[in-house]
From TrEMBL:
It holds the Pfam family NAD_binding_10. This is SDR family oxidoreductase. InterPro entries: NAD(P)-bd_dom (IPR016040), NAD(P)-bd_dom_sf (IPR036291), NmrA-type_oxidoreductase (IPR052718). Residues 6-143 form the NAD(P)-binding domain.
Amino acid sequence: MIIVTGASGQLGRMTVQKLLERMPAEQIGVSVRDPQKALELQGKGVRVRQGDFNDADSLTYAFEGATQVLIVSADGFGDALVQSHRTAIEAAKKAGASRIVYTSHMGSSPSSHFAPMKDHAATEEALQTSGVPFISLRNGFYTASALMFLGDAISTGVLAVPEDGPVSWTAHLDLAEAAAIALSEQCFDGLTPGLTATEAIDFTGIAAIASELSGRPIQRVVVSDDTYRDTLMLHGVPEAHANMLLGVFRASREGEFAHIDPTLTKLLNRSPLSVRDVLKTSIAAAN
């Protein structure tokens, strides 16, 4: 049985849906903190069990009978997050899983300017020392994050963010399909190449695409790091989280997310969704 964690979240749920296109529902189980949020999957025949990365006993129950476990990286950053991933890895090992698949990031590095990349690197180290065969899916930066940073720029006409650099923004849907393929075909081993879309684009480019698609002019304004952090905190974002978000810009300025790789295109046997594709869908849904 393939167990997918975080199946009530965007990537986890999409991955389960893609798995259902490839195998019978009785071969799939999910581990979720709140089973009520996975009733739709249960209705399709997927095994739903409560599991929490901070509760090893719950994971022992949720992972029972697992042949493979997909650990979808949890929200947050820092030592507590890495420890929760270690707990999930140990639980998968205890359950007898023959392979652990983890949703990492193409920018994974212990020296990254973006804190979550250090956490991915630490989790990959835990996988390497676990003694269990693993696949670490080095996903491109989620395009959904670009939309988050874009915010209300279409309505205000201003996108005010710090200096940045090109990022290989990649859609959740494509990465979910990649995860489903990796789980069902076991086509990778260890650290994968970067699973990215076919272009790297900065926020000036994103503003231009959004302006074109919406028919509304958007001015891309460069603000200082300090101004951006202060603005976030003024809107109630905790300082630690504001500094973490600022790290995206610092890292992209250094080219940490600019690499593009053909692996995802080959795996999907088609072109991945572009920033333009995702923006077009988002703008259409908002109108």
